[in-house]
Each structure stands twice: as structure tokens, then as C-alpha cells.
Write a structure and sequence with these properties.
Blueprint (H helix, E strand, L loop, with lengths): L5 E5 L2 E6 L2 E8 L4 E6 L2 E6 L8 E2 L7 E5 L4 E6 L6 E2 L4 E7 L2 E6 L4 E6 L6 E2 L4 E6 L5
Length: about 140
């Protein structure tokens, strides 16, 4: 008998099976404003949950991009400073919310333009944490 591909194992915690991989996904927020955390990545969905519209919360384009807090949280560590070079996937800020550590990762290569948080600070959902400048042509 095949295992269910998505199974809720606790409030806001799901096991997702894809092929031979089993992953844990944390989900928060009402259906009209849902946040999912998986493997250091944050995804956000708004609107009608039946539409299935999903977009990465920190999809990068060109120019400067602000990385924001996905939910109210405490800043555990700020791992970058203005002027620092980051590569896609680098953890720039570590948050704690709902007894989980949430790494906020650089969505692409760039230079840290500004840091708007500090360790120990309580931040709110959508509060700007770090601005990364991808620069022209990136």
C-alpha cells in the first residue's frame, strides 16, 4: 500500500513524500495568508486556497531586494553586515518562531546593502530584515 504523499503529523507540521524522499514542512497562517517553511526556504500563498497559487516569498530579480520576516519571530543571529558578498542559499539571518529555527537565505548572489535587525530583536511579519543588491545583469 502506497504511503500518503502529504500527511499532517502535528498542528502546522506535515510530512511530504516525493519519490524516495520524505521531507518535513511547517505551515503557519490562515488559508487566505499561508506561509510554508521547507529546507530553509519560505513560501507564501495568499487568496483563495482552492486556486493553488504559490510563489516563493523571496524570489529574486535584478536590483535591490528586501528579505522580510515570514511571521512574528525573534532574531537569533544576524550573519551578515552591509557590504558583505552573499551567494544564493547563504543564511543571512536566523529567526526563531513557534519553537523552530527559521534560516532566512539569500535568494541569489549579491551584496548586502543594509541590515535592519539585530540579535534578540522581536520582528513582525513582513518586517524588512536585510536588503541585498543583486547588481545589474544578475
Amino acid at each position: 500500500m502506497a504511503e500518503e504523499p502529504i500527511r499532517q503529523i502535528a498542528a502546522g507540521v506535515f510530512t511530504v513524500v516525493a519519490g524516495d524522499r520524505r521531507e518535513t514542512v511547517y505551515v503557519a497562517g490562515p488559508a487566505s495568508d499561508r506561509w510554508a517553511f521547507w529546507n530553509g526556504h519560505v513560501f507564501h500563498s495568499t487568496g483563495d486556497p482552492e486556486q493553488g497559487v504559490r510563489r516563493p516569498a523571496s524570489a529574486i530579480g535584478t536590483g535591490a531586494q528586501a528579505l522580510t520576516a515570514p511571521m512574528p519571530a525573534t532574531v537569533i543571529a544576524v550573519l551578515v553586515a552591509p557590504g558583505a558578498r552573499v551567494t544564493k542559499g547563504d543564511t543571512v539571518v536566523l529567526l526563531e518562531a513557534m519553537k523552530m529555527e527559521l534560516p532566512i537565505r539569500a535568494p541569489g548572489d549579491g551584496t548586502v546593502k543594509a541590515v535592519h535587525c539585530r540579535a534578540g530583536e522581536l520582528v513582525q511579519a513582513d518586517q524588512e530584515l536585510v536588503v541585498i543588491d543583486a547588481g545589474p545583469g544578475r
